[in-house]
Each structure stands twice: as C-alpha cells, then as structure tokens.
Amino acid sequence: MPSKKKTLKIIPLGGVGEIGKNITAIEYGDEIYIVDCGISFPEDYMLGIDAVIPDFTYLQEKRENIHAMFITHGHDDHVGALAYFIKNFPEVQIYATKLTMGLINNKLDRHGIKEANLVCYKAGDVVDIGSISVETVRVNHSIADCVALVFRTPVGTVVFTGDFKVDYTPVGDEVIDLGTFARVGNEGVLALLMDSTNAEREGFTMSERTVGKTLDNIFARTKGRLIFTTFSSNIYRIQQIINASIKTKRKVCVMGTSMIRVVGVAKELGYLNLPDDVMIDVERISSCKNSELTIITTGSQGEPMSALSRIANGEYRSFSIIPGDTVVLSSSSVPGNEKTISNVINKLFACGADVIYSDLEEVHVSGHACREELKLMHTLIKPKYFVPVHGEQKHLVHHCRLAQELGMDKKNVILPHIGGVIEFTGKGVRCIEDVPAGATLVDGLGVGDVGNVVLRERQLLSEEGLLVVVASVSEETGEIISGPEIICRGFVYVKESEEFIEELRKIVMDVFEECKDKKMADRTKIKAPIKDRLRSYIYSNMQREPMIIPIILNEHVSVQDVVQKLNDE
Fold this sequence. Notes:
This protein is α/β, with parallel strands linked by helices.
C-alpha cells in the first residue's frame, strides 16, 4: 500500500485571542518547528502571579519530534518564556538574530542557565533543517534585528511576518525588505500568518523618526530634569533620547534593573551609541545641574516594583521627584494596564512634576502595522490561506474582515484559537481536534503550581477576608477542652465586633455539642458543619463570605500557643 501523505499542521499555542505569550508550532509529518516563546502580563484577578507563560504540555508529549525553534525578535512577548522552555527542552536548537541572542543570554544568566543550544542567524539567511527550509526576511519594528520567517515545506510555503510595520525612515536600521516579500509571493504562498495588533487602525503607522522631532521640542523647552520611561527593549526610542541629550549637553543616567541590563547588552553589541562620558551613575546625579540631566528608566506600564513607580511613591534610593521635573511616558499602555499607569501619572503630578504622555504629545508611535500596511503585505504575499495572529479576538476578527475586503474567499480565512490545529493537505485545509494548550502561571520560583483553585482562594481572601476557628478537643469524649478562639484577617475589626465574635463562638460550640459523640479520629468531620453554619450565619447577617478555616487540635496542644503563633504571623 502506498504510504500516507504527510500533512502540514499549524498550531497556535499562544498569542491568538490575547496580547503576548506568542508561540506557534508548525508540524510537518513527525517534524515540529516552533516560532517564538513569549510571556504575557498577568490579569488583574491573578493575584501574586509574576508572569504567564505558554503551556508546554503538547510539546512535552512530542519532544522527540521538535527539530528547532525560530525567534522573530527580542520583545518579552516573543522571548520572555525561553528560559522556562530551555529548562524543559535543553536539547532544542534555538535560532535568533544577534541582538535577540544577546537579550536571550541575559535572561538565561538571570535564571542560572549556563548552557543552551543557541544559533545566531541574520536577515537574509536560509536555514535548511529536516524536510524544510526557513528564510529570514528583514522587517521594521520597535526593536532592532527583527525578522519575518518563510517556511518552505513539501506541502507549501508558510510566511510568518512576526511583529512589523512599514517604516521608510527607520532609526538605526534598514528599511523592511519588501522586495523579498514580493518575490516569495510570486513563488506562491500556501498560508500567511500576520501581526494583527493594529488591524482596527486606519492608515499607516507613523515613522519612529516622528517621535524624535517631539523629543527635540521637549528638550529645547525644558529647563529642569528630564525623566523618560519607555519599554526597555525599545532601543530606537532610547537612542533618540540619548541623541537629544547629547545635543543639549545633558548627562544620561539609566535606572531600573531591566533598563540597565538591556542598555548594557545593546551598547556592548553595537546597537546603541551611548558614549561613556555621557553616562552618569545614580549616586552622582546630585553633582549635575537640573538642566544637565536626563534619566531613562523602567515603569512604562506602571509596574508596582518598577523604578518609576517607586520614584512616584517616594521609595527609590537616592532619587526623588522635585518641582520642575518633567516626566515623559514614551510608550503606549498594554491593554488592562491603563488604570495602573493613570495612578502613577497622578502621583507624579502630586509630587510636583510635569507629566507628558501620548494623549498630550506624540511621544510614542506604535511598532505595529496599521490597516494600509497590512493591505500592502497581503497584496505582496498573495497567500491562498490567511491566519491572523498576535492580537486579541477583536484584532483577529478585524484582520479577517480586511483579508476578505481584499478579495480573499471567506472559506480561506481561518480564525484561530489557542490549541486549535489547522491542517493543510494537498486537497485543502481543515480545523481538527484541539491539543492541550493554554497558560502556565509563574509565582516566584513556582511554575505551574498555582491554578484556578488557588487563584480563587487568593481572590476570596483579598475581597472577603479570613476567619480562623481554633479549638482543642478531648480524644475520649469529643468535647471542647479549650477554645474556640476566633481569629479574623480582613473580615471584621475584632475590638469593635465583640458581640458578633461571641455569637460565632456559640455557633461553633453548638456544632461540637451536636457532634460530641464523634471520637478524635473523626474530628475532621466536624470541620464541614462548622464551616457551613458559620458561613450561613455570616452571610445572613453581613452579606459577606470570608474564607473559613477550622483548626481542630488534640487536647495536648495549647490553643493559646497556636493563636499566638497565628497572630505573630
């Protein structure tokens, strides 16, 4: 019998229907190739979570089939989860451009990873691996060394644009290689996966150089200290701030851990021109006149532990806001961070600073293509099938509609979802069963050990508080020997609620009286009725639902010692 023909599968494991966490698997036969491996910001309800990374379950199941990973650029939403990936898949070869590789190595150092299977490539290179070849194509974005990827497989050619915009006057970079995209389009493209972040926005994205003009105006009119915050990976923006500082004879101080790291890597690799005699340490800024100092720092998203947030709260070492300072937020807000950023802006104003942000002046331009640029790319590449990626659901839907407006048949436009398998055969395309996919939560050193139950408990604690019941019980009779003691955290103020607390004690004692025939071995069965009766009483009297934790001790353990320990903690 003839062997079954191999099919081509595209499997978004992240980055569709959401901002960030970009990762896609391409599967030809038993060969798997991965594009990017990013993180995303935790949602508001994810209390205590530091980062969200892709779920690698499907890749774990097929690890012997993984041939390589290809990285499009160095933003965290495309490389931020690499350290976690490498810990699980140290054998996988990872291809990245020079600057991206420098940023990756920096992240691996912070995770204590000394060895990784990293390979450097550049725009225009062709990598032959397994049954496919991968061509890299230069694109413009808000970070240097970005590439699109052209996968040539036996089933057909697949193009990943990565994050891009069409910038005819980029800062410190070459123009996007539209000629290669046109050539690839003429050769024939089976499927196009394209950045959808700005699919709602009409027109063209402004050139990065337009920000430079605004920055020059700000520098020219400002007499006091200038404090800039932007994404630490936005090398072009940082370079323009440095250029304007040099032009106006200002020293430059870099603050914030991630900003210091990225600036150091970019300077070392030659992507950032920051002369040593222009730089100044934070300990020496008091020696500068206010009119001779520029500070570049982290905190563009209002992150609580970022340098700018701590400055706004008066908590940053050796530096505080003074009247006459000008703070420039040279970035856009990631969806969901608007309120946090607004709070930081308000605090900066309260400290006496003048704050400039994108609502007031053109201090930021997007790194993503708007609708006219998307149309240009569609027209050049001329794909048979189109799959929008990199965006929330609304962005993906708008991009699907744009493709249809350009004449693409609706049945050839595929709206993806995380874990959904898109299979291409010689006869067409179909969406088959989903694979395991989703999010893994990172909490400190814990990866994946916090799930929905823990998040729900954290949310309950933050909203309703905690009530702990402590009592010791006779092993012989099941009667209370000591207690019950009631401890409240974030529920009621005990000193002003003594009668209410006393009523709670009576309820607990009633439950024990009803259950006193149960021996010590069955004391855990007393916990459920205690929780039920207390929950019912509290809700009927206060409309609140605190977390209730009964602690039942044997008669040899002191209730007071346990209560004292809980109070100390």
